[in-house]
Design brief:
Elements: H1 2-41, E1 66-67, E2 75-76, H2 84-91, H3 96-99
Antiparallel strand pairs: 1-2
């Protein structure tokens, strides 16, 4: 019984490998045909609807809410991960209010 199972499994694996190989050949042929058509007609990704033609809304950067008291070029919006300089300033005795941009 196990021999029969192994034989069938081996046959199945061989068929699957053949089908996968045939699939890859068909896929390459399809890609080649698509490339030929794209080049012949000068199509773009937008023509093929592969990219969005609608402009996306940009949220932009969040406005800075806190400034590093030791280096005023470093700011933080208060959103996301707290930067190291902010943690260090708190440990050094500064308060959030001390670092607020007014």
């Amino acid at each position: 019984m196990q021999e029969n199972f192994r034989k069938r499994l081996t046959e199945f694996q061989q068929k699957r490998a053949e089908l996968n190989s045939e699939y890859e050949v068909l896929k390459r042929e399809a890609v080649d045909q698509c490339r030929e058509l794209i080049e012949a007609f000068g199509l773009t990704a937008a023509d093929l609807k592969l990219v969005s033609t609608k402009p996306t809304a940009s949220r932009g950067r969040s406005k800075a809410k806190y400034r590093n008291p030791k280096d005023e070029t470093k700011t933080w919006s208060g959103i996301g991960v707290m930067p190291g300089w902010f943690k260090a300033a708190l440990q050094a005795g500064f308060t959030k209010e001390d670092m607020e941009i007014r």
